Amino acid sequence: MSEQFELPKNGTVRLLQITDPHLFSHTEETLLNVKTVKSFSAVIEQIQKQIEQTQQGFDLVLSTGDLIQDHNIAGYHYFAQLTEPLKTPVVWLEGNHDVQPNMAEILGEYSHILPQKQILIGEKWQLLLLNTQVAGMPYGELCYHQLKWLEEKLNEYSERFTLIALHHNILPTNSAWLDQHSLKNSDELAKILQPFDNIKGIVHGHIHQQVDDVWNGIPIYATPSTCIQFKPNCDQFTLDLLPQGWREIILHENGVIETTVKRLNCNDFLPNLNALGY
User: What GO terms are given for molecular function (predicted)?
Assistant: First the structure.
């Protein structure tokens, strides 16, 4: 199997990012009072309705980790089955809650879910998916092999605009409890990226909140979870009442990225605000 997937789409390309669903093995199980399978299903249903109303679908679904919560492979089956109606190829990467090799094995059973981590999009773009998981730890790190792979792919397709995806946050969130779980070696990542002027954005999950910022001249995008939301700028663990969300990303042929975050129209999945952690 090729390590590349070629998406034969020129012109404007539409990506859908969904992240941190934290799915359980049963639909009634909750994460801090939120039934995560049901909140994920609600997000997918609203996206489907939007597609039907606008007649504008997506070319690729990007899932940026923490697909499951309880280390049970049933959650991966839920993820695959619930994304199948989108009728769109899905690519994925690991979060700190995910379990390998189960993740790759189960997702590999579904034809719409792709294993490749380098996606060549038309003639202008490439999407590179990085694994920042450190087994058994909440923080993230890019190992030597991931950094080397990234450098190789950037050199190999230096004429293409590049979007990079990973799970862990690079920028601090101004929340002490959360920042200890960020990407530990962002300085090494910066050294790899520094010679390249074709990197148009980095997108991630992990922090369960929206961020649109800039790091070393590169736009950084973090996306709300499809389950619980973390309240920004809180040194102690604090949940937010914002609804579940997703990010839509438009890649233009001239290298411009256009992106918006959308959320559920309802607020039916409220968390336990008294929770001190999870």
Answer: 3',5'-cyclic-AMP phosphodiesterase activity; metal ion binding; nucleotide binding
Statement: the pTM of the whole predicted model exceeds 0.90: yes
77 known member of a binding site: no
Kindly give the interhelix angle for 36-54 and 74-83, rounded to the nearest 10 degrees. Answer: 10
Alpha helices, DSSP H, located in 137-233 = 144-156, 176-179, 186-193
- Cite the beta strand spans of the chain per DSSP E: 4-7, 13-18, 30-31, 34-35, 60-63, 90-92, 118-121, 125-129, 161-165, 199-204, 211-215, 218-222, 229-230, 239-240, 245-251, 257-263
What string of pLDDT tens digits covers the 278 residues of the chain?
468 999 998 899 999 999 999 999 999 999 999 999 999 999 999 999 999 999 999 999 999 999 999 999 999 999 999 999 999 999 999 999 999 999 999 999 999 999 999 999 999 999 999 999 999 999 999 999 999 999 999 999 999 999 999 999 999 999 999 999 999 999 999 999 999 999 999 999 999 999 999 999 999 999 999 999 999 999 999 999 999 999 999 999 999 999 999 999 999 999 999 988 88
- For the chain, the structural domain boundaries read 13-263
Ligand-binding site membership of 167 (annotated) = yes
174 is in an annotated binding site: no
Q: Is 112 annotated as a binding residue?
A: no
| 71 assigned binding-site residue | no
Q: What is the CATH number of domain 13-263?
A: 3.60.21.10
Q: Is 83 helix (H, G, I), strand (E, B) or coil?
A: helix
